[in-house]
């Protein structure tokens, strides 16, 4: 069962999303909040698998809430769910550790599938968003990226595909602890603090490599991209 927490200051919106989620056999809403302050306290108490966060809250930003949640408990995945298509907000969401940035005009089943995929640790950004992040981060990180070892680049690519450390270890025939050390090392070299940043950065890099364009499956603003 995938446990979902909803954060939106509009009760009608929360009710609609909750009804949609609770109709699914593998999903359940375990809590709701209408403010950033409520969200931080209640998410800490319920520890959901996925938190669906509105960007604009009465006492703050859902992106700031995402950053705090991911810092306090990295196992909680965050989906930013908003009516506003904003490049700067999308970029900020990635840096905050969000799994994706989904517009409210997305179809119900796309939202459900986004929640399921976020729960699996997938990074739900379009190739265009990934490229935008790389262009913003790339100037400062081009040289550090070149210093990654062949194994670190393999790990980075698998992170960008949404694999967990255990799954990466199984694929590369490495101990999970060894993978964790590689992840820590590549984050240090890239000057990044969050796995999500590395995942999107890696996705953008691979999307620009030969035969790399079909490696990313993502929702981003609601369009499924291959």
Brief digest:
InterPro entries: CheY-like_superfamily (IPR011006), NreC/VraR/RcsB-like_REC (IPR058245), Sig_transdc_resp-reg_C-effctor (IPR016032), Sig_transdc_resp-reg_receiver (IPR001789), Tscrpt_reg_LuxR_C (IPR000792), WalR-like (IPR039420). With 226 residues, the protein is α/β, with parallel strands linked by helices.
What does this structure look like?
The protein has 226 residues and is of the alpha/beta class. The protein folds into two domains: 2-124, Response regulator (Rossmann fold); 128-207, Winged helix-like DNA-binding domain superfamily/Winged helix DNA-binding domain (Arc Repressor Mutant, subunit A). It has helices spanning 11-22, 36-46, 62-72, 87-96, 108-119, 127-146, 150-160, 165-172, 176-190, 195-207; strands spanning 2-7, 27-33, 50-53, 56-57, 60-61, 77-82, 100-103. The strands form two sheets. A five-stranded parallel sheet has the order 2-1-3-6-7, with helices on both faces. The chain is globular and about 50 Å long. The two termini are 28 Å apart. The relative contact order is 0.12. The model is unreliable at 208-226 (pLDDT under 50).
